[in-house]
Write a structure and sequence with these properties.
Blueprint: H1 11-17, H2 22-38, H3 44-60, H4 63-72, H5 79-89, H6 96-105, H7 112-126, H8 129-136, H9 142-154, H10 161-169, H11 180-188, H12 194-206, H13 210-216, H14 225-236, H15 238-244, H16 252-266, H17 270-280, H18 288-304, H19 310-315, H20 324-336, H21 340-349, H22 352-355, H23 358-370, H24 375-383, H25 389-397, E1 402-403, H26 413-420, H27 423-433, H28 437-448, H29 453-465, H30 469-478, H31 485-488, H32 494-504, H33 508-519, H34 539-549, H35 562-579, H36 584-593, H37 595-604, H38 610-615, H39 620-639, H40 646-651, E2 661-662
Parallel strand pairs: 1-2
Amino acid sequence: MSICQNAGVDAGWLEYWSVEAMKARLILVILAVLGCSAAAGADRDRERELFREGWQAAQRGDQAGIVQAVAALPDYPLTPYLQFELFRQRIDQVPPEVMTQFLARYRDWSFHPQLKRTWLRSLGDQGDFDRLLTHAGDHSDVVVRCHVARARIRRGETDGLQDWVRDLWLAGRSQPDACNEAFGWWRRQGNPDADTAWRRFRLALDAGESGLARYLKRYLPPDERPWADRWLAMAQRSHATLRQARQWRDIDYARLIVSWGLERLARSDWEAADGYWRSLSRNFSWPESEAAAIAREIALFRAVALEPDAVAAIDALPASARDGQLLAWRARAAMARGDWAEVLASIESMPLRAQAESRWRYWRGRALGELNRPEAMLAFTTLSAEADYYGFLAAGHLDQPLSLCETPLQADDAIQRRLLRDAEFERVLELFEVGLPWHARSTWRHLSARLIDREIEQAALVAAGRGWHHLSITALNQAGRRQAYPWRFPMAAKGTVLAEARRYGVDPALAYGLMRAESAMQPDARSPAGALGLLQLMPGTAGAVARRNSLRYDGASSLTDPAINVPLGIAHLAELHRDFGGNWVRVAAAYNAGANAVKRWLDERPDTPPDVWIETMPFYETRDYVPRVLAFATIYEWQLERQPQLLTGQIIPGAGPAAGFACPP
C-alpha cells in the first residue's frame, strides 16, 4: 500500500506537520497530491536521489524538507524511514493514534526500537501515564522503566514496586534524572537496607565511579561508614592503604576491602600485590576460598608477566583454582622460558575441549617436536589439513603445501528471484544503496532468522554482486559456507589497495588481511575506541599520517570513505614497516596494540621465537588478532595467485615461501 493510498495515516499527516504557517501548509498539501500522481513513475535512481535529499534534510533538522521528500516518494520502499525521522524530531507533537498505528505497522523495521523508546520517554516526560503503561510493557530502557515506576506511584499501584525500583537503583553509575521521583518514593519506604547500599557502593567502585561511591556512603549505617572511607582510600591510594591495613581488625569488612585491593593491584603490579599478600596473611584469617581467589589473581598476572617462577606459583594453588585460563598461562610462561616439558604438561592438564582447539593442538605438536618425540609428526599432520593460522603453521613445519580447499558457489536464479521479490530483502538492498548500512545490517539480522541456509547463501551472492562485501561475509558465515573463500575474502577497493600498496611498498596481501580482520570490509565500521573505516584508523593517527605523507584527510567522518581511508591506512602500515625493520608480524601487532607496546615487548623478550612471541603477548586482543591477520593475509596470497610466504616465512625461523597451496583429497 502506498502513502497516498493510505491517506488516513500517511498522506493525512503531511498536512498535520505543516504547523509553521498557513502558506507552508498549503504548499505541503499540494506537494502530497503532486507526489501521488507524479512520483509513481519515477525510476529507482531518481527515487534514491530524492530519498537521500530527504535524509540529508533530516540530518539538518529541516522538517519541511523531510515532508517534501515523503510526498514525492509514495511507493519507494524506504519512505517510512523519512517518516520515522520526522516523528523522532517532533516526538512530543505526534498524535498518539498516528504513532500507535505507525509503530504497529512497522514493528519489524530497524527503526522501531529507537522510535518506540523515544516515544515512551516522551509520554513519561509529558505525564501521559495511561498511554505509557498501556504501551511500555517490560521495556528494558532505564528511563522508560523509571517513568513506569513514576506512573505506578502516581496511580497508587505499588504492589511489588519496591523490588522493581531496587533493581533500577542497583547500578554502578548514576541513573538518569527521570529516576529521581521513583528513588525518592523508594527511600521513603525505608530503603535501601545496609546490604543493598553496600552492593551499590561496590558496584560504583568496580566501575571506577569513586564520586558516586562517596555519595552512596550516606546510605550506609553510621558505624560502618569508616570502612567505606577505607575502601575509597583503597581505590585511590592502594599502596598506602594496604600498608595501613596491617593495623586493621580481622573482621569481614577488612578482609573484603583488602582482598579487593590486592586483586585489583595484581593486574598492574603483581609483585607489589604478592608482597602485601604475604605480609597481610599474618594479620588476617581468610576463608580458604577467599585466600585461593587472591593467590590465583596474583599467580595469573605473574604468569602474564612471564616471570620465571610463575609455573611454581600456579602449581602451589589448590587444584580447584587451576582453571583453564591459569593452565593456558602456565603453558605460556613455560614456553617463554623454553621449558617444553611443562608446556606439554600444562596442555595435558587442560579440559579435553580446550585440548581439542587448534591453538593447543599446535602447541602440543611444538612441545613434542622440541622434546624430540615422534608423536610431533602425527600432531602436525592431523592439524595441517585445517585452513587457519595453526593449520598453516603445522603445514609449514612439515614442509608441505598449505591446505586450502575452495567450495565454489553457484547462483540459483529461482531463489535469487524469489529473494528479490521479498519486500524485506528489497529493503536491505535499498538501505545499503542509499547509504544507511546500519539499518541495512539490522534489517538483514531480522530477515535472515526466517531464511534457510540455501537462501542465505544466495543472498550473499546477490550482495557480493552489488559490492556489499560485509553482508556477503556475514551471510556466508551464517550459512556455514566457510570455504567459499573468494566471497568471504573479497578484494574490496582492489584498484586503490593494489596501487597504494605498490606506492608505499606494502604487501597487498597483508593490507587485505588487516582490512578483513579490522572491519570485515565494512566501510562505516566504528570501534568502541573511535577507530573508523576499512582499516580502522583513529582520527588522530589519520591526521598525523596525512600531514607526513601529504594525503587527503577531511576529518573523522571522511574515514568512512575508502578513497581516503585506504591510502591513509596503507601509508600508516608503511611507516610501521620501516619502524620495525620489515617484520610484518611486528607491524600487525603494532597496528593493533600500538608501536610503544610492541617495542616494550621486544625489549623484554628480544630473542623469543616468533610464534612464542605472539602467543605470549600480554594483551589478549592482540594475541588473537595477529594470528587472524596472518591467516587472512595467507588466504589473500591465494587470492592473488602467489606462493604463501607471509605466515610461514615470518613465523618459522629459516623458512622461505611455503610449498604452495593444495587441497588434499
